[in-house]
């Protein structure tokens, strides 16, 4: 699998980096024709912010990060050509306050399926987790578990309501894709049985913070699985982590059972 950079910006000192905001109609061929305009002017596209749209959305605003280094073309010429396209409603140039830097500050707030979200990088997550553990000891681990349990229950309630899915296996299949989309980890195996559910995850963010330890390190995600499964089954569940990448295992393995 390939990583996905969500920075929505670039800082490249010495380069002529410009941003373009382009409001467009939602129709086939939009991205290709916009890309062709930049290509025809020999302007390199370094990045783009494109919201995930549902079919009924009529228009959206795109953000392109481009490199004009060495180009004799004026950004106004590019804007003029873009505005000639029949589906472009408006277009503008964004120049960063820092030389060589442009960031997408035009899309806010961030959302996932119409629900607001924020991005926490690994240093922030590590600081939160380690502070809880350092200040609260075993209580910190329990705190993470209970937060995860609440989050899991809320996620299950939201998606069962949004998509009307009640089937246990289908909900865990949906969760498998959500976990990857959210950047939490890659679910490599899900086995839903009558007595228990077996789940294997590679690169789980919580456990990837540690290495060379003797004990499993998932508390938040273990709680998440407990809350998620309990909400779907409408009965309390227990979750144990039998393998963990923090111990040197290839993946983190969880067993979910009814209490």
C-alpha Rg (nearest Å): 23 Å
Main sheet characteristics: 4 strands, antiparallel
The pLDDT mean sits at 95
What's the CATH H-level homologous superfamily of the largest domain?
A: Trafficking protein particle complex subunit 3
CATH class of the largest domain: Alpha Beta
Order of helices and strands: EEHEEHEEEEHHHEEHEE
**Percent helix:** 25-40%
Helix tally?
A: 6
> What percentage of amino acids are in beta strands?
25-35%
Strand order in the sheet with the most strands: 3-4-2-5
Unreliably modeled segments: none
Strand element count: 12
Note the overall shape. Answer: elongated
Number of domains: 2
Corresponding CATH architecture of the largest domain: 2-Layer Sandwich
The CATH topology name of the largest domain reads Muramoyl-pentapeptide Carboxypeptidase, domain 2
Distance between the termini: 36 Å
Give a verbal description of the structure.
- Helix content is 34%, strand content 27%.
- With 259 residues, the protein is of the alpha+beta class.
- Strands 3-4-2-5 form a 4-stranded antiparallel β-sheet, covered by helices on one side. Strands 9-10-12-11 form a 4-stranded antiparallel β-sheet, covered by helices on one side.
- The longest helix has 26 residues, at 138-163.
- The radius of gyration is 23 Å and the shape is elongated.
- The two termini are 36 Å apart.
- The mean pLDDT is 95.
Short description:
By secondary structure, the chain is α+β, with helices and mostly antiparallel strands. 34% of the residues lie in helices and 27% in strands. The mean pLDDT is 95.
């Amino acid at each position: 699998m390939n990583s996905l950079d969500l920075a929505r910006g670039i800082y490249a000192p010495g380069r002529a980096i410009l941003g373009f905001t382009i409001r467009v109609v939602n129709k086939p061929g939009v991205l290709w024709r916009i890309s062709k305009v930049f290509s025809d002017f020999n302007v390199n596209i370094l990045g783009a912010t494109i919201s995930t749209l549902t079919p009924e959305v009529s228009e959206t605003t795109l953000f392109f990060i481009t490199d004009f280094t060495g180009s004799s073309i004026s950004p106004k010429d590019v804007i003029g050509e873009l505005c000639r396209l029949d589906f472009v409603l408006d277009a503008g140039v964004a120049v960063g306050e820092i030389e060589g830097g442009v960031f997408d500050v035009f899309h806010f707030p961030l959302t996932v399926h119409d629900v607001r979200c924020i991005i926490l990088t690994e240093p922030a997550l590590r600081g939160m987790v380690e502070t809880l553990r350092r200040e609260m000891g075993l209580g910190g681990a329990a705190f993470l578990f209970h937060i995860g349990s609440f989050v899991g229950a809320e996620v299950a309630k939201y998606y069962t309501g949004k998509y009307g899915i009640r089937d246990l296996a289908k909900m865990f299949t949906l969760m498998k894709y959500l976990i990857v989309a959210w950047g939490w980890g890659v679910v490599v195996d899900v086995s839903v049985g009558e007595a228990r559910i077996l789940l294997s995850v590679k690169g789980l963010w919580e456990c990837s913070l540690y290495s060379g330890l003797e004990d499993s390190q998932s508390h938040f995600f273990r709680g998440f699985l407990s809350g998620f499964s309990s909400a779907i089954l409408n009965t309390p569940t227990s979750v144990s982590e039998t393998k963990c990448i923090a111990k040197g295992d290839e993946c983190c393995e969880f067993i979910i059972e009814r209490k």
